[in-house]
Request: fold
Amino acid sequence: MRTKKNLLALLLALALLLSAVPMVYAAETAAETPSVGSLKWAAQIGSGYTKAAGAPIVVNGNIIVMAGDEIMCLNSETGETLLTGQMSQAQSYGYTPPTYVEELNMIFAPLGDGTVEAFDADTLQSKWVYQDTLETTATQKAMTTVTYSDGLLFTGFWVSETADADFVCLDAETGELKWSMAIPGGLYWAGAYCAENAVIFGTDNGSASGNTDTSAHLYSLDKLTGEIISDIELEGLDDVRSSVVYDEGRVYFTTKGGYICSAALSDGVLSDLKAVSIGSASTSTPTIYKGRIYIGASDKTIKVIDSETLEILLSIEMPAYPQCSVLLSNAYEEATGEIYLYATYNAKPGGIKLIKLAADAERAEDCTICDLYDAAGYEQYCISTPVADDNGVLYYKNDTGCVFAIEQKSVTVTVSIAEDGFILPKTEIEVPVGLAAKYGYENSSPVTDSDVSMLDAMVRIHEIMFGDDFTPETANDYFVCSYGWISLFLGSSNSSIGYTVNGKFPHDDVYTEYGYSGYTADQTLVQDGDSVEIFYYRDSSWYYDMMALFDQDTVTAVQNEEITLNLSGYAAMWYGYYDDETIASLTYPLEADIYLVDAETGAFSDIIGETDENGDCTLSFGTCGTYVISAKEKDGDTPIIAPWLEITVVPVTTEIDAENKKVTVTAASNENITVNIIAASYDDNIMTNAVLAEAELTAEAQEFVIDISELDGENIKVFVFEKETLCPIN
Reply:
């Protein structure tokens, strides 16, 4: 059984102040974001300069993205385009994402030519279009996010470093212009913060880059009238190219001149401007957490800054300039003491870096930096901020025109738990990297932070079997594993737990006269596609339980055909860590009862046979279908670790012997029917010749041999049809 992810995710964190209500932080989430990334999907949405893929946002569990003059809804599980809406204008460069307002269920898109357009979030149908009327010599570009507050929308436009552009207030439901203000230099990535009575934003400086004859401004305007409450001139600080964010009575922003800035905010009034040089430009909207600010800087670093003094505490090296906002996850802080920072960087390959550090880290050397996603095959520049959904999946885009979904790396394994029968039948589960650590358990070498261990798999089993009752706080009530040794499992005290991976006992590769040294659960690596078998030893005196093995891994048989099986075994704990040759020499036939097993519950039902002193038994099944069988020791015998064997019973099997030019068809039917058997040769999927035979099927399995000497080539297929109905039966 593969576990399903909840597809109805809510919006948790949006970059560049994308939220629909005033936020303390620009990009913070409590979702369990990836510690080791894996590409879930990549969707080619845009291309080139005129139809660039825009920055994605999460809306009602799906992904909204703009490309050219289209707005699209993507399935968050697959990246498939679910809906497409037509926009009145193309977006400007694809750098600025739309904004979703949950209470209105509307999406607001900042577009070219001074345009804002509203869309129904369910249908992507346009609801209204606003186009600004400020007379300029060039088109006003929408380079700034739309901010929502109390039924109003706020955004600004940009023309050039030296031209005026409008900042506007619109009615969110109708698009009606409430007021506007012409801003020298306009707004570029400078999203607004809305307080109870005011809207606060920074501006460009209205002059060519590097010319400080004029200054940028930090404005606080009355939300309802647009009247200026405060106007702080940012002399010598250069353009404000970040959104304004709020924390603990102050607003924060960065500038292209290389400053981190803050100002006190009280009842809409700004005061006490602080500006401290960080030594290089920043267009990164601050992310603030526990008194620290996280921003990207053009000297190719992430700066960690004290929010009170604006002192730089740490500089963490990046491959290139991180122009994004830093996405911060605190999901693992309680368990590991670390917060996770996610940042892109404006250079190839254009992936995502993950930085793990304590919220009070004092040295950059104490941070762990790794490639969460290396963008292999999609190398291009990137300034997009990662955003997270409720499941912790990250979404972003780079200049390939692709939108990416990055999830936690996981492996899919088949697990079972055997005792006197099966506590857990063979079940397919997905196990994410780092799951054990979430619950306070620790893996050991040779398992690394990017691997999945037996310990992780055991924790996942407890999650599935105990559901919401199994939490980081209650985990030790159900499962205790200390230094790899298990003393409590499934809520029962029992140290007699064994396990194999793909039928082998995990161990190191150092062989001695005593065999290999076994690995404990925290040392055992499991990989995608592995079969994990967990069992209890039931021989409490000598732990001499026999690892029972059928001589076939799977069986396919025709109905009523006799199936011959052999069952043998060896003392698992005593000899499981020897080499294959030694184990084979210590493996003996087992006399046992053969049971049918309920594949859904693992319960043993009917005894359908028994093995003799040589371990042999013969079975047959009169009805087509899939059966599971196992074995159990006879009364008084040494306990058997229950094996699992699937037998598929079909009406027809075929064996093609191209070398000897014959096809053997073994078939049976519950009713006597006539069938046509067709053997056909193919060349590049085109049939070149065929041989037809007819056969009468009865309930007993029968063999039919067909001469295919007339057929050319080795690409031969066989088809069996019921003659009267032409219904295929193989």
